[in-house]
Amino acid sequence: MLLMPTDEERALFEGLLKDVTEIKTGMRELRDLLTARNPRPDPETIWPYGNWENCKYTFPDASEIPALQIRRADFQSPYIRFAPDGSIRFDLPEGTAGKPTPSAQYLRIERREYKDMSAKTDFVQGDIIKRDFLVVFHALNRGVSDVVFTQIHGNPDPYFKVAAGKKGIRVLCKTREGLSGDDVIRELLPHEALEYERPYRYRCLFDGTNLEIGIDNNRLGVVFERRDPCYPKDGAYSPLGVSLTHRPVTVLNA
Predict the structure, then answer these.
(1) Contact at 8 Å (CB) between 171 and 184?
(2) pLDDT average, residue stretch 199-203
(3) 211 near 222, Cβ under 8 Å?
C-alpha cells in the first residue's frame, strides 16, 4: 500500500527543494562571477612567462604534431618541426642571423644552473650534463610522457633521461664513471613537482636565441628568450612564450 505524504511533509519537501535550487543558482552565479573576474586562459594562447599553473599541454603521437610557427622581428619566420621519429628540429632560412643556417639543424641543449633550487632537486647540480644534447620527444600524453636528452657529439656518455609518468617525474642518468642508465637519482611525486615554478630548465643556444624547456608534472612548456639590446651590460633577456599545442601558434613579444 502506497502511503501519500501529508501536507506538512509535502510543504517541508518543497521548502527543501526550493532551498537547494536557490543554493545551486547562487553557486552558479558565483562561479560565473569568478570566471569573469579570473578567466581561465586558453591553452592555445600565449601563456604568461613564469605562470606555469596555467600551462596545459596535450601531445598526440609525435608523428601527428605539425610544425609550430614562430614569428619574430629578428628572425625570418623560423619553424620548429617535429620529425616522425619524435625529434624536434629547428628550421631557419639560409642566411638568417647573419650566417648560413642549415635546414633542420638539431637543437643544442645545455644545462643551466639555478641557485634557488631546493636540495630536493640537487641532481641537477652535479657534473652530469655539460655538452650538446639532442632533445627527443615521445608520445607526451597521459602518464607516458617521456623526454630524452641524448648527446649528439663525442662519447655517448653521459646519458640523461627525464620521465614524467603517473607516479611523478623520474630522473635517470649515466655519468662518465659508467653508472647504470637505470639509476634513479631523484623521483619527484606530483605534489612535490608542483612546489617548483620550473622544476627542470634547459637552455638551447641557437643563433643567439635561447630555447628553454621546462617539465612540470606531465606538462611541458617552452620559453623563447632573446638578449635585449637595450641592456647589453646586464645581459637581460626579454621573455617570449609559446604554447606547445596541436595547432600552429604565433609568438608575440612579452
Answers:
(1) yes
(2) 32
(3) yes
* Nearest CA-CA partner of 215 in 151, 158, 165, 180: 165
Q: Compute the distance between CA of residue 148 and CA of residue 133 in angstroms, rounded to an integer.
A: 9
Does residue 93 have a cis peptide bond before it, meaning omega lies within 30 degrees of 0? no
Is residue 81 pLDDT above 60, yes or no?
no
Contacting residues for 234 by C-beta, under 8 A, at least 6 apart: none
Residue 163 in grid coordinates: 620521465
Mean pLDDT of 31-49: 48
Range list of H helices, the chain: 7-37, 190-193
Whole-model pTM: value is: 0.17
Taking the CB of residue 253, how many other CB atoms lie within 10 A of it?
Answer: 11
Rounded CA separation 131/145 (Å): 24
All three cell numbers of 95:
642566411
d(CA 51, CA 30): 25
